[in-house]
Design brief:
single chain, about 300 residues, alpha/beta, Carbamate kinase, four-stranded mixed β-sheet, 9 helices, about 40% helix, about 20% strand, disordered C terminus
Length: about 300
């Protein structure tokens, strides 16, 4: 007589999980996956717990042969330091007005606080992570988006040489999205946009955004309308009719642009769920919203996503 599901032993459950993950591990070995880690991607009881869980996911991805690249911003931390320094934060159309003093503060926070925290969390598990600025080795070339916004930049080019060198040395790049123009002037780059541009330049297999929602919905107020799989054309329509709006637009625009320019798939996941990266990458069901160029076939259930 077969054992009832509730009587299955813990070792057996663990073995089943490993067997389920095996085809995905094989498929993604040697593939580059760009993960954008945002301030809203919280999993666990505290920010420290969230960071530790995220670091475990990244290290496990690396351990099974994937090539993870972490891209991050730091908006909440920048606003916090500006407040402590008595400087008012001003936003226009969702973008921070960035004068000369503010860009200095942004660099201090991203390069002196957030980036080292991520690198340290990953390196608890071994000497794996290396912090990089978008200004290093001409990684992110930028230009001013709008004179009224000051030193807020748009990405004009990405030179992935430094990132590829780190990946080829079996290291994990952790990239702060500070770019620079050809004259060396620093610009603050939207981290969602920066992650998409980096994923395109690397020809990444996947671009993953960790945020604070479970994914995209066809009806914003209806949790049952979660979009599990979609295409760039469908997302264009949802942005045009206002279904996707506000702070999600940069993420979705970057997903759409990346998939249309060489990235195989992009994902929007709820970073508050513990080990959400592993659930998406290594299980049949997956989680969140996946974007790819062509409609997903349903003829082969369980095929690696």
């Amino acid at each position: 007589m077969s054992e009832a599901p509730h009587e299955a032993s813990s070792p057996q459950l663990k073995a089943d999980v490993l067997v389920e993950a095996l085809p995905y591990i094989r498929r993604f070995a040697g593939k580059t996956v760009v993960v954008k880690y945002g301030g809203n991607a919280l999993a666990g009881a505290s920010e420290g717990d969230a960071l530790a869980l995220f670091a475990q996911d990244i290290v496990l991805m690396h351990a099974v042969g994937m090539r993870p690249v972490v891209v991050h911003g730091g908006g909440p931390q920048i606003s916090d330091l500006m407040g402590r320094l008595g400087k008012t934060t001003e936003f226009r159309n969702g973008l921070r007005v960035t004068d000369a003093e503010t860009i200095d503060i942004a660099r201090m926070v991203l390069l002196g606080q957030v980036n080292p925290q991520l690198v340290s969390a990953i390196n608890v598990h071994g000497p794996l992570a290396v912090g990089v600025s978008g200004a290093d080795a001409g990684l992110i070339i930028a230009e001013a988006r709008d004179p009224e916004l000051g030193f807020v930049g748009d990405v004009t080019d990405v030179n992935p040489t430094i990132v590829n060198r780190l990946l080829n040395e079996d290291l994990i790049p952790v990239i702060a999205t500070i770019g620079s123009d050809l004259a060396g002037q620093a610009y603050n780059i939207n981290a969602d946009t920066g992650a998409g541009a980096i994923a395109e330049a690397l020809g990444a297999e996947k671009l993953v955004y960790l945020t604070d929602i479970e994914g995209l919905r066809r009806v914003v107020s209806d949790a049952t309308s979660l979009i599990r799989q979609t295409t760039p054309d469908e997302l264009d329509a949802l942005m045009a009719d206002g279904t996707i709006a506000g702070g999600m637009i940069p993420k979705v625009e970057s997903c759409v642009h990346a998939v249309r320019n060489g990235v195989r798939r992009s994902h929007i996941l709820d970073g508050r769920i513990p080990h959400v990266l592993l659930l998406e990458l290594f299980t049949d069901a997956g989680i969140g919203t996946m974007v790819q160029q062509l409609p997903v076939s349903t003829s082969t259930p369980g095929a690696p996503s």
